[in-house]
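Supplementary material to the annual report.
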Amino acid sequence: MRFLRPTPRRIAVLVAATIGVGAGAAYAASLSVGSWHLWAGSQTLTKATCTVTGSTATTDTYVTQATPGGTNGNSGQIIVQPNSGSQDWGFVRFDLSGCGIPTTGGADSATLSLFLSATPGSNRTIAVTPVLSTWSNSLTWTAAQSLSYGSATTTFTTGTSGNVARTATVTADVDALIKSSSANFGWRLTDTGTGNHTTTFASSSDGTASHRPTLTINYEK
Amino acid sequence: MKHLTKALAFSLAVAAAFAACAAAATLAVGSSKLSAGNASVSACTSSLAATRNVSNAGNVTQVNVAGIPTACSGETLSVTLVGAGNAALGSASATVGSCGTACSATLTGFGTVSAASVKGYSFGLTGA
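Predicted assembly:
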């Protein structure tokens, strides 16, 4: 037990060792705390709906292969026809400026509604293709051949009943449109089939307001 | 032996005091509840804003975060899509790349989440 005999030197060594161990542990922990960057935050979205319709907010027409220089911008109809040599293509676009959607917003959903003003002879499939270059309601078949087009966004079927609205989902196109408001060129409507089948939609010049093309957008900002 | 007893008692008291300090520091690290306001933690930004892209079906395909300060370069950005009742609808993370004046990040892989159900975004930035 002589080695346990307390001497001033042994006491000093014991205390110093204890302080050293304890201080070392605390110092290492403090270093670990101070080495991190942390930040957390959030963003709340506002949801709203905008419906665009009417003759002033809508530009639409159709072009006819049989009369390549003709215009139909003032017609009350948008005619679509797949027959080779006498095709008809429809065009429609909407002015979204009245919706007040900022370019930082986006579409949650967007639906294009077209009114079938005549009964189709058979069920037709209509392709909705984004137009990527500018056009007006004085568009001709010849000029339409020089426009740029994207890939078809969607298709919809007409059914065989007339005087009903048909809808197409165009969410992705409208979302992109919102984010780049300068690139609003609308859509081309074409029949994906063949043969002599005419599909007639009401245009923005139709006398009945509820029959005119409509774009309904549920959006966030 | 009396001196030895006193010396041992003193040593134990000192050790206990330092051990308490070390334990407190370790708790702070392990709890992951440090905020930007803590003196020992800093943040590289004070706000972020996001936009998102959607598929034609209306599902979120990616989230874009722009205007991230260059001080956040190299840090990990986590984004959670928040729905009604603050429910987490999907999460993804990405490393903020190096950049000149302001950084941006594009996050994908949120799963199938309807954009209509997203009421907001929750952000987290961590890094050394």
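Residues 81 and 89 of chain B are 5 Å apart (CA to CA).
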